[in-house]
Amino acid sequence: MKKSIQFLLFVLFITALTTQCDVIDQPFKNGGPQDTTSTAQLRNVLIEDFTGHRCKNCPKASKKIEELVNAFGADRIIGLAIHAGPGNFTGTNTDYPTDFTTTEGKQIQNFFGTNFLPVGMVNRENYTPSGNSHWSSFDEWPTLSAQAMDSTLRVELEVEATVDYSDTTIEVNVKAIPQVAILHDLDVVVMIKESGIVSPQLLEDDTRDPNYVHNNVLREFITPTWGEEIGNSPMVPGDEYLSSHSMSWNTSWVRTNSAVVVYVYNPTNYRILQVVEASID
Amino acid sequence: MHGNFQLDGQLYLRDESIDPTGEFFPDEKFLGQGYANFVYADGSFSAGLRYENYQNVMLGFPEGYRGEGITYRFLQFKQDGLDITVGNFYEQFGTGMVFRSYEERGLGYDNAMDGVRIKVNPASGLELKAVLGRQRFYFEKSPGLLRGIDAEYNLSSELFPKLDSAGLRWTVGTSFMSKYQRSNDPFLVLPENVAAGGIRTRIAKGPWSLQGEFAYKANDPSSDNRYIYKDGNGFLANVTYSKNGLGIIAGIKRIDNMSFRSDRNGSTIDMLVNYLSPTAQVHTYALPALYQYATQINGEEGIQLEANYKFKRKTILGGKYGTLVSLNYSVIQSINKDFIDPSLDTLRTLQGYYSEPLVRGEIPYFHDFNVTVNKKINKRLKINAMYLNLFYNRSVLEDGLGDESIQQNPDGQKLMSGDIIIIESLYKLKRKHYLRTEFQHLNTQDDRGSMVMALAEYSIAPHWFFSVQDIYNYGNPNADQKLHYPLASVVYTAGTSRFQLSYGRQQRGIFCVGGVCRVVPPSNGVSFSLTTSF
Fold first, then answer.
1. What percent of chain B has pLDDT over 90?
2. A188 is a domain residue
3. Is residue A3 part of a domain?
4. Which pLDDT value is given to residue B266?
């Protein structure tokens, strides 16, 4: 009986713990954690948004990126719409004639392993070969983005992108500057994305919007899918690592709506250390 | 020491008829998965573990299962009225409206707890449970912590012995569960601690039994409810009567915003803390199983009536061996929801919508009316015949369309209604030799159209079992999809081991257990399964 009484006390203790419940009266925070006082580069966020023009829930993910860009700025939140996944979401037909898929997008989707849409990765944090923590729904992107932006910048990136006057070649120059000691190799990835593309999209209510505007659409990688090596371990603050990349410019892409996205990542765990978007001059 | 082992695999064959673009055809071509449980018990002590492997997970199962490892391990001892488990465990409070941790292997569902569970009977008639831990999320853990307690008390035996001696059993129970999940959302002030609680009772006397439970959940903005702060509630009641061959069950359920996950961003069948049982019959026959009901955790209300009566032997309807007749009716619809104008930003986020519990919802989700007659004709032959009338809202149950979208565009709903007839027979050919046949027909103008199915199974007890079946989707509105779905299987059983080999084509469908469902993609190939226990 004595032990039973002890246990009852223990239960009361557990009950006291479990009475925790937060009741919220005012749900909104005033603005985000933006730092407008410093011009120093901060850690940016790449949201790889796996999407499809026949995926009716996908516009919600695109809208979430738009909200985050509005809140934190286009330099801090960089969206990338990767049209990859099941053919019934991404395939073309007479109603959805534009093929937005890319070889690189399919390779990334296969490697990280999902067939759900919409789904995304935020700086490819928490990747493990047998886990799923690197995948997130668009509802999680605000939290994950805020966490990533609060973390230490390990590599600063400077990017210049130019297309020659005859619109035949794009050239991208990248400078990576470690901000802390880095004890792993560093790979760089360079790609082109385009916004403002008008093409049909399936909407949540199962209707088709023929004039939907697709933004942040991955067009093509200038580097291979998994990039090229830009620095070898060890790297120390103050070092500078340069690389240049070029490819033929596809004249069907609207240059003023296009941008170059460059990121550097740790090839041992695929974590993106810094990402920068640059307009094309 | 005891345990069991299972290994499943399938060699997938490219079939352009059911998968024209190859979107479901796996790159690996062969997929296999399995598990083994080992449990050791000695006196008041027991321990066990489960190893699982997915190389890679088979089509239709959640893709989160990738890789291999020990996913379940526990130590348990019972001493001085205490039952303590550390490590993994499954547990349930009441009917599960507040908390249920369980595994349903066929679904790929497993939300096992990892932590501590204590059970005790501190006084006569009183049972207490306390749990603390995190839920399984495939090969990882959910980000939320769970802390819960449950108490059940036998009122009639302890406080009202006169009622008890008169044959009345009356128990009451209460449960409480709180989850903690850190929030770093830049826009919303999210509750990091969310609590849910419930009360329940069960009264039984003679042939009658009444069971009821009410649950409440505090503000829990989540991906499921689109981040509204409205509280949730649920009510469930069942009355049963059983006497002299007559059995009646009447159930009613209403749930409002009762999605409760240990990760507010979770979806599909991931990290559900509670379990909301369906008020619909679960069908095992192939054609009605194509349109199973999935519980709508954001809100639904429904009733279910079930009655069966066995006509006695040597009566007009009973005949020589008696006749069992069963009726089942279930109907489920949305709850009443008056959505707040999105322009009222704060109110919309805090409340989402208003709901009148006594006003019937507008959107029909599902109904199922069926009659079954089970009759033994003679010493060798048994017949089971069923008629089923079905309504199934595909926009809600397959596409997950929300009530607000449907209210705005009710004409856009994809609905399915149809009639199904099933005749099953079991014939004893000679000693240990049995032939079972099924004929099923679905008549509908909706979705994939009408289908017919025939099946024959020949078994030689206790080792061999042969089966062939075919479903012909002759009514498909798309001429290219008027396909046959043949399947042949052979099973060999020896002692506690069973080996199955199958070859055939499977159409897309939905596989459900207890109102929890997953989508099964179409496939074609050779599959095998080996199970054994020791």
1. 76
2. yes
3. no
4. 87
Q: Which residues of B touch A206 (CB under 8 A)?
A: 395, 399, 401, 412, 414
In this structure, are residues B150 and B129 in contact, taking their beta carbons and an 8 Å threshold?
yes
Helix, strand, or coil (residue A91):
coil
Distance CA A193, CA A259 (A): 6
Nearest to B273 by CA among B171, B357, B189, B180: B180
Predicted confidence at residue A6, as pLDDT, reads 57
pLDDT higher than 90, residue B124:
no
User: Does the residue A23 lie in any domain?
Assistant: no
Reported confidence tier of residue B23, pLDDT bands at 50, 70, 90: confident
The alpha-carbon gap from A39 to the nearest alpha carbon of chain B, in Å, equals 21
How far apart are the C-alpha atoms of B95 and B99, rounded to whole Å? 8
Report ipTM for this prediction: 0.77
Q: Residue B141's closest chain A neighbor by CA?
A: A133
In terms of phi and psi (left: phi > 0; alpha: psi -120 to 50; beta: otherwise), the region of A124 is left
How many distinct structural domains can be found in chain A? 1
Of how many residues is chain A composed? 281
The answer to whether A4 contacts B63, with C-beta atoms less than 8 Å apart, is no
Top-confidence residue, B79 or A278? A278
The chain-wide mean pLDDT, for chain B, equals 93
Which pair of tokens denotes residue B222? 């989540």
> What are the helix (H) ranges across B189-314?
none
> In the prediction, which pLDDT does B481 show?
92
Q: Does residue A157 sit within a domain?
A: yes
pLDDT at A33 over 50: no
Range of the domain at A58: 42-279
DSSP string for B393-432: EHHHHTT---HHHHHH-GGG--EEEEEEEEEEEEEEEETT
Which residue out of A2, A3, A5, A7 would a mutagenesis test of the B interface target, given it has the greatest number of B Cβ atoms within 10 Å?
A: A7
Question: Which residue in A has a C-alpha nearest to residue B149's C-alpha?
Answer: A15
Provide the CATH number for the domain around residue A127. Answer: 2.60.40.10
Cβ atoms of B183 and B190 closer than 8 Å: yes
For residue B229, pLDDT over 70 is answered with: yes
State the residue for tokens 């993994």: B88
Per DSSP, A7 falls in state H
